[in-house]
Input
Amino acid sequence: EAGVTQFPSHSVIEKGQTVTLRCDPISGHDNLYWYRRVMGKEIKFLLHFVKESKQDESGMPNNRFLAERTGGTYSTLKVQPAELEDSGVYFCASSQDRDRGIYEQYFGPGTRLTVT
Amino acid sequence: AQKITQTQPGMFVQEKEAVTLDCTYDTSDQSYGLFWYKQPSSGEMIFLIYQGSYDEQNATEGRYSLNFQKARKSANLVISASQLGDSAMYFCAMREGPFSGGYNKLIFGAGTRLAVHP
Output
């Protein structure tokens, strides 16, 4: 079974440019999450999709960030325009939706974004 | 507000010995879950172990066990018989709220970097 994949693994862009990150969750996982870790700080939740619907986007920092999950499969996270403080590692995770018990989130390898 | 605290930025342990990584949490919810993830130098986040707030027994997964002390709001990870491959960053995380619905986001601690020495 393939794990969560993310593309690209690393992106270097200039301030003001646009970058789109992609996440492919584990097949069959309805839940998809985006997190990010800014240098030296904790990993922070950005948003949560259930299928194609945004369940919780309380962690999105501002309107320069746009996440989509068309068709309930892969998701994209677009940053437009990018600012220096957006640099960090962006993680995607997916999980099944079970009524009880563990439903751990499986993480992708992350995309390291560097804004210069 | 919910919060996870990992007070040990770095730890080291001798190979084959046991090590405890500390984690305390703060929440007003009665229902929550606690996770530990491992992040090796390659960057991926690997799920290790889970403890539900209503679980009466401490969780165990192979060499990993979770020392859950609910009254003290602590969920320490114990790694027995450390191996060189255990060298990594370890994150404690908490899921707020009930088991399903829109309460699935994880709150992470700052992490503890573990170095296993031969």
Notes: The interface with chain B takes residues 31, 33, 35, 41-45, 48, 50, 55-56, 58-59, 89, 91, 93, 95, 97-110, 112 of chain A (CB under 8 Å). Chain A has a mean pLDDT of 91. The two ends of chain A are 37 Å apart (CA to CA).
